[in-house]
Amino acid sequence: MFGVAKKLRAAGVLGLNERNADFIMRLNPRRLYPRVDDKIITKELALQAGMAVPEMYGVIRNQGEVRRFGEIVANRESFVVKPAQGSGGDGILVVIGRSTHKRELFRLSNGMLISTGEILHHISNIVGGQYSLSGNRDKALIEYCVQFDPTFAEVSYQGVPDIRVIVYRGYPAMAMVRLPTRASDGKANLHQGAVGAGVDLRTGKTLAGVLNDLVVEEHPDTGARVAGLQIPQWDFILQSSARGYDVTGLGYLGVDMVIDRDLGPLILEMNARPGLNIQIANCAGLTDRVARIEEIYDSAATPEERAAVARREFPAREPLKRRAPDA
Questions:
Q1: Using CA of residue 67, residue 73, residue 74, residue 78, what is the dihedral sign?
Q2: I want to staple 188 with a disulfide (CB 3.0 to 4.6 A). Which of 18, 93, 141, 178 is the partner?
Q3: Distances from the Cα of 169 to the Cαs of 23, 48, 278, in angstroms?
Q4: Rounded CA separation 108/158 (Å)
Q5: This prediction's pTM
Q6: Considering only CA atoms, which of 162, 132, 172 is closest in space to residue 253?
Q7: How far apart are CA 270 and CA 240, in angstroms?
Q8: H/E element holding 198?
Q9: Distance (Å, rounded) from C-alpha 204 to C-alpha 223?
Q10: How far is the C-alpha of 96 from the C-alpha of 78, rounded, in Å?
Q11: From 3.30.70.100, 1.10.10.10, 3.90.1640.10, 3.30.470.20, which CATH number describes the 2-51+148-313 domain?
Q12: Across residues 107-122, what is the average pLDDT?
């Protein structure tokens, strides 16, 4: 056991305890957590900074406002319902249309139909705190439903992929694309069975993927190759991720973005406790990259300059062929 840990450290793999003590506790003051733990606050801060986010249609703040759902979505064919303080994709409903016969029936991204009453019940559960990080009362956010970008059409199953960028002291350090699968029920969540594909920061091209800690070359549902996809507007994505540091003040940050077919890259959310599986997806550790950022850190650098540094400093390594180490 200790031998394995020693080998992982030697390979530059950042462990959970080190992440918590040396990164989160040191660089992320708890007073700043609401900026990322509450998606409504995150959206407002991003908008103030001129960053692109999915449009917010309405917020339901208490049980008495649940009945406002019909009014909020009256003329909407598609939308997303999510808890403001949820995590891991829990509690999110993605509505992609209405029944052609009964407008009070809505079609979810997995093809199932759901009634207005069922959505109202779900919203009531959100407001009651069923999906919140703390278990306390929450708010339900109803927002624009991202339209699928054809770039990822062959490597995604019934869902919209997202791009996670780890930002250290304002510098993008590592990135991956999370690809929905049948097992993840169309959600871009690694813990639920999505594929994570590393990204070459220099080029914005995907590397080999990881599925349940195993390195994979093909999407499990479509059979399409995961590596070699060119992510659109990669410079803009890196710059927006770097700007997340200026917006939140958090020194260790996960920035999640999606690419909309019509609107381009949008900030989906930010995270003060981003996970470590991104290292497996990239077959590389974060420790060496963080050390390099410390060496070249410039407090006066702009987001654009920090993104350019990341592209220069962190090109992809040769991917592993079989099994990646467990981070």
A1: negative
A2: 178
A3: 10, 21, 18
A4: 10
A5: 0.89
A6: 172
A7: 11
A8: strand 195-199
A9: 22
A10: 5
A11: 3.30.470.20
A12: 92
pLDDT of residue 89: 77
Mean pLDDT of 190-196: 88
Average pLDDT over residues 70-78: 93
Kindly list the domain boundaries of the chain, sorted by start residue: 2-51+148-313, 56-143
Sheet holding 93-98, edge to edge: 56-60, 140-143, 79-83, 93-98, 105-108, 113-115
Q: Which of 214, 198, 206, 225 is nearest to 284 (CA)?
A: 198
User: Would you state the pLDDT for residue 317?
Assistant: 67
Q: Which two tokens stand for residue 154?
A: 């062959």
Provide the token pair at 262.
Answer: 């019509």
CB 164 within 8 A of CB 255: yes
Structural tokens at position 133: 């990080």
Strand order across the 252-260 sheet:
214-216, 206-211, 195-199, 171-179, 162-168, 252-260, 264-271
Read off the tokens for 233.
């507007």
Q: Tokens standing for 24? A: 């989160």
- The structure tokens 């973005």 sit at 257
- How far apart, in whole angstroms, are the C-alpha atoms of residue 221 and residue 223? 6
Handedness of CA 210, 212, 218, 223 (dihedral sign): negative
Q: Write the pLDDT tens digit of every residue in 144-171.
A: 999 988 889 899 988 889 999 999 999 9
CA nearest neighbour of 269 among 207, 188, 185: 188
